[in-house]
Amino acid sequence: MTALLEVEDLRVAYGKIEAVKGISFKVDAGEVVTLIGTNGAGKTTTLRTLSGLLKPTHGKITFDGKPLNGTPAHKIVALGLAHSPEGRHIFPRLTIEENLQLGAFLRKDKAGIDKDIQRAYDLFPILGERRKQAAGTLSGGEQQMLAMGRALMSQPKLLMLDEPSMGLSPIMMQKIMATIAELKSQGTTILLVEQNAQAALSLADQGHVMEVGRIVLSGTGEDLLHDESVRKAYLGED
Ligand SMILES: Nc1ncnc2c1ncn2[C@@H]1O[C@H](COP(=O)(O)OP(=O)(O)OP(=O)(O)O)[C@@H](O)[C@H]1O
Ligand SMILES: [Mg+2]
Q: How far is CA 115 from the centre of its chain?
């Protein structure tokens, strides 16, 4: 089987500082793959590069059989790669529904868009209840739901989520993780960046541990969850 996403020896720098130092991994269709690691490991830089927001200095990215290097961000969305960014970046003055519509900015199939907005409301009922309200009135967890719903509006083949549980209460975090599990069970392919290693590894098929720009350990979610060095460094055990 060919991978949906294949990243080979990717390097990304900010000026002279190399933030991603030659990483390789792949994501097969239907899988959840997670990148975990401490602050500054290069996780967000990796996702922003896959989205076309940053240019790699080296390496090869292949998505759905096509090389992505140099492809502009909006074309990458059109190819089926959606990104729910770190910090969410919803539009606070626009309504929830308008935020969702913006996620479909490349689509022209009005009926299909309406159907997918309804799907977002089925996934996150609170968004439907408050569809006409300004998105800035939502709580942090609800804004995360909106960011995920918006990313899904482009009907992605691969959904990238950057720290969806950041800053959320334990209950809200569980709700977000349960939704990711639900999306997975519906067949959505997901690349998940998380600092909450326990939650991410519990639902991931594959995981990679990043440290200062490199992948230092890879395995199934299950293997990494039981790996002694991961437990010490990321799961707060000694
Ligand atoms: N715009 C930028 N200009 C210069 N350096 C940057 C920029 N963005 C990130 N960096 C640096 O690149 C490195 C990787 O950062 P990145 O945001 O990718 O890490 P991360 O793994 O997502 O961390 P976190 O868990 O804190 O979100 C860090 O050393 C960071 O300081
Ligand atoms: Mg980050």
A: 23
